[in-house]
Design goal:
By secondary structure, the protein is of the alpha/beta class. It contains ten helices and 25 strands. A hairpin with a 4-residue loop joins strand 13 and strand 14. The chain starts with a helix and ends in a 7-residue tail after the last strand.
Length: about 550
């Protein structure tokens, strides 16, 4: 065989090798900390819908074992929620939620979801009085959760005007005079309540990105009473499998954050984002027994495993784009029982909520881990990668010697990632790995999974790991190594022939977040409470273990 033929044969054999069999190499380098003042607040969730027209918090057992417990489990660095309780909402549930957020040191952005229309030209005094009421309401919320930081008087520039009572009415009608009048009334309310240095006003809460231009107007019109700027966006033009969202999202966030910084010296945040919206929502299509089903397009579809990649890409883009925080819509889905009232269901949650079905969705674990470990205050760390399909973001704290890195691989091949260590830490690195072929999932109690592995740093202060195709990998030293105390005095009292009460002595330590209850060695419950009722008709063995805020479990 001639030399030419041999070369042709070798070339054909190399081309025949499938790309997924090749192991690519990517280098990730960390540079300087981007913000010495540690202004990054965190990644978290939008709770706006979770306390509305809904008995989600009206059962103490449900709150202690499901909603409140999972919120404490993910320990978000940032949430967005409504401070108002004047529409039949559960004030007890709202205060209980604020208590959880205070325990987890969560920065809170309040938004009033449906403010009343007040014609400021004819009833100026009425608008001022409303601003005073809002100021007092926020003062009450601060008493429960001093971590509240920002407030915007309406969601996405929407107000039920007499001639336009639909979403985004103030943008569509170009009534920025109304928006400004409310904004100014709210500021006077904050001053009157004496909390203007604790809660600052946000402008403009606009959505989608083409409405972010309203922040340019706000920077010229109301910057003197505005503390921060923020907006929303949903990637309706990008499927969960799309490679294109990250570049678009990073450009939009970085562009807006840059304009705000240059014009005002202030910060920009993302109050609300998520997956693409189901296309039939706005044609009043029913689904799952709801009169109107408003939900994420990739829920319950073959694209759902890829949805987690899309959500974490949003967090990476927000961090690299210099946003100080971001919230996913939403923490819990909201199903309103048909027949009880108008059944509009909001199904965007990390967990289902449909009757007794509260199972976590596929993205709950990985978004919960990002929420927990990307918790500020922290600095963004500059990061570069030589493969545009490998998206990386890192935050950290020099003062506390910790860092967290999130990596999304959109590559269809296994990739060897060689990464420099951003901040030196004596703790081993916890590594969590998710791929579309092997998702990282929680149990049905919403307990976040343990680390996929633990790594020690080499003397060269580098690490090398394999990134599976279409995957998420989280690295962190943002935790404490702690010995969790053993739960004492576990007692079982029989209530009737089939039901027992299990109770124990709570551990008086604020870092203990909840307890896992085991029956004959198998976990049957997770709860923030110090007792449960359980089904048991025979003599059986119950045990209880405490879990702390870093996920460490006791004996």
């Amino acid at each position: 065989m001639s030399t030419v033929l041999r070369l042709l044969l070798l070339l054909l054999l190399s081309l025949a090798t499938p790309i997924t069999a090749r192991n690519k190499i990517v280098t990730v380098k960390h540079g300087a900390l981007g913000d010495e003042e540690e202004s990054f607040l965190g990644i978290g969730f939008d709770l706006l819908a979770n306390l509305k027209d809904n008995n989600i918090t009206r059962s103490s057992a449900f709150f202690n074992e499901v909603y409140g417990k999972r919120l404490l489990e993910v320990r978000p660095g940032f949430v967005r929620m409504d401070p108002e309780v004047n529409r039949g909402d559960d004030v007890g549930g709202l205060n209980a939620t604020l208590y959880i957020l205070n325990r987890s040191n969560t920065s809170i952005y309040f938004t009033t979801f449906a403010p009343p229309y007040i014609n400021y030209t004819k009833n100026f005094e009425g608008l001022q009085n409303y601003g005073m009421r809002v100021g007092q309401t926020l003062k009450q919320r601060l008493a429960v959760a001093p971590t509240a930081r920002y407030y915007c008087w309406t969601n996405e520039l929407s107000l039920c005007l007499p001639w336009d009572c639909n979403w985004g009415s103030l943008v569509r009608e170009k009534r920025f005079d109304i928006w400004q009048a409310y904004h100014e009334a709210m500021y006077k309310g904050l001053v009157a309540a004496g909390i203007e240095n604790q809660i600052g006003l946000l402008a403009t809460d606009a959505s989608p990105t083409y409405n972010w231009v309203t922040m340019n107007w706000a920077m010229s019109a109301v910057d003197n009473i505005t503390a921060v700027y923020g907006g929303h966006h949903y990637p309706n033009n990008f499927s969960a499998k799309s490679n294109g969202l990250y570049k678009f999202w990073l450009g939009q966030v970085n562009g807006m954050a840059g304009r705000v910084q240059e014009a005002t010296g202030k910060k920009f945040l993302i109050g609300e984002t998520g997956g693409p919206q189901w296309t039939n929502t706005h044609t009043n299509k029913s689904r799952y027994g709801c009169d109107i089903w408003d939900g994420c397009a990739w829920f319950d579809t073959p694209e759902e495993p890829y949805g987690a990649l899309q959500l974490v890409e949003q967090a990476i883009g927000a961090i690299n784009g210099n946003a100080i925080s971001m919230g996913w819509w939403t923490f819990f889905s909201q199903y309103i029982e048909p027949g009880v009232q108008y059944a509009k269901c909001n199904d965007w949650g990390t967990s289902r909520w449909n009757g007794t079905d509260t199972r976590p969705r596929m993205h709950y674990a990985v978004t919960g881990l990002v929420s927990r470990y990307f918790h500020g205050p922290a600095c963004k760390v500059e990061v570069t990668t030589d493969n545009e399909l490998i998206r990386v973001a890192t935050i950290g704290s020099m003062a506390d010697s910790w860092w967290s890195t999130a990596v999304v691989s959109r590559d269809n091949a296994t990739t060897t990632m060689n990464m420099t260590i951003p901040i030196q830490s004596s703790k081993p690195i916890r590594v969590y790995s998710y791929s579309v072929d092997l998702p990282l999932v929680s149990n049905d109690f919403g307990d976040l999974p343990p680390a996929s592995k633990v790594m020690n740093v080499s003397e060269e202060h580098e690490l090398s790991v394999q990134l599976p195709p279409f995957s998420i990998t989280i690295f962190t030293t943002n935790y404490n190594i702690a010995t969790v105390p053993q739960v004492g005095d576990v007692q079982v009292s029989r209530i009737n022939a089939t039901l027992v009460s299990v109770h124990w002595t709570a551990i008086p330590d604020p870092t203990i977040f909840y307890y896992r209850v085991y029956l004959n060695g198998t976990q049957i419950r997770s709860t923030m409470n110090d007792n449960i009722n359980a089904t048991s008709s025979i003599e059986e063995t119950f045990s209880v273990r405490a879990v702390d805020m870093w996920g460490n479990e006791g004996l």
